Amino acid sequence: MILEIADIRIHPGQQEAFEAAIQKGLTTVIAQAQGYLASRVEHCVESPERYVLQIEWATLEDHTVHFRGGPLFTAWRAIVGPFFAAPPLVEHFNRVV
């Protein structure tokens, strides 16, 4: 299992609309992706324009090749991309403990 963590910064004042959009994107697009296992979104208390998206994938390639290289990525970015103040910082992790 691979954990994708995306550090997202959105435009000020767009929290409510972004939260609705990311929920829609996760349930209608990401959930269809090959190797998708689970996801969650956290909202930063100190920085209200910051969110952390965590997605569990079966393999790294399920995210980097199959999802990002296919039409679902375009659909995902059409839903959430307009809210981004900057490109998200995305990294992948292996569970240690």
Q: For the largest sheet, list the strands in their spatial order.
A: 2-3-1-4
Report Rg.
Answer: 13 Å
Tell me the series of helices and strands, N- to C-terminal.
Answer: EHEEHHE
Q: What fold name goes in the CATH topology slot?
A: Alpha-Beta Plaits
Sheet/helix structural class? alpha+beta
CATH architecture: 2-Layer Sandwich
Uncertain runs? none
CATH C-level category: Alpha Beta
Task: Summarize the amount of helix as a percent range.
Answer: 25-40%
Percentage beta strand: 25-35%
* Total count of domains: 1
Q: How many DSSP E strands?
A: 4
Shape: globular
- Mean pLDDT across residues: 98
How far is it from the N-terminal to the C-terminal residue, by CA?
13 Å
Largest sheet: 4 strands, antiparallel
The total count of helices amounts to: 3
GO molecular function: monooxygenase activity
Pfam families: ABM
Keywords: Monooxygenase, Oxidoreductase
Domain ABM: 2-93
